[in-house]
């Protein structure tokens, strides 16, 4: 399982020194890119070699316990669901092995041919990679 270690900086907090919630979505996006690199299919390479992009179709988060300024924490991303044309990525945020937040993104498997975008079926070779479990 991929574990991304983070440190909550002053500029990522609100006046109460609690993480400012939009930062979760920024972290989730970055963690999703790291997940694809970890699986051996970096999104940039997927774009360049296969003309595939993965736009976000839906995103959500649930905040369980606040993170505060100067906290060390981890983000654990994983592929939680694969459909014909979409992938769901789940994110779990832990501090000291205690769950503080969860999130998810649904990303479309989209062929980009010039300016034309088309949601397409995920090729079997990628389904095998995306189903890889640690």
TrEMBL record:
<dbReference type="InterPro" id="IPR006684">
    <property type="entry name" value="YbgC/YbaW"/>
</dbReference>
<dbReference type="InterPro" id="IPR029069">
    <property type="entry name" value="HotDog_dom_sf"/>
</dbReference>
<dbReference type="GO" id="GO:0047617">
    <property type="term" value="F:fatty acyl-CoA hydrolase activity"/>
</dbReference>
<protein>
    <submittedName>
        <fullName>Uncharacterized protein</fullName>
    </submittedName>
</protein>
<dbReference type="InterPro" id="IPR050563">
    <property type="entry name" value="4-hydroxybenzoyl-CoA_TE"/>
</dbReference>
<keyword id="KW-0378">Hydrolase</keyword>
<dbReference type="Pfam" id="PF13279">
    <property type="entry name" value="4HBT_2"/>
</dbReference>
<comment type="similarity">
    <text>Belongs to the 4-hydroxybenzoyl-CoA thioesterase family.</text>
</comment>
């Amino acid at each position: 399982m991929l574990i991304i270690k983070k440190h909550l900086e002053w500029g990522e907090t609100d006046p109460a020194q609690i993480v400012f919630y939009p930062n979760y979505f920024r972290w989730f996006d970055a963690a999703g890119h790291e997940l694809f690199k970890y699986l051996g299919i970096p999104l940039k390479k997927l774009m360049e070699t296969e003309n595939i992009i993965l736009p976000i179709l839906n995103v959500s988060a649930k905040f369980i316990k606040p993170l505060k300024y100067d906290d060390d924490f981890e983000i654990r991303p994983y592929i939680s669901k694969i459909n014909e044309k979409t992938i769901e990525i789940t994110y779990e945020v832990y501090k000291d092995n205690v769950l503080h937040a969860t999130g998810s993104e649904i990303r479309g498997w989209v062929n980009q041919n010039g300016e034309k975008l088309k949601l397409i079926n995920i090729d079997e070779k990628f389904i095998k990679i995306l189903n890889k479990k640690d």
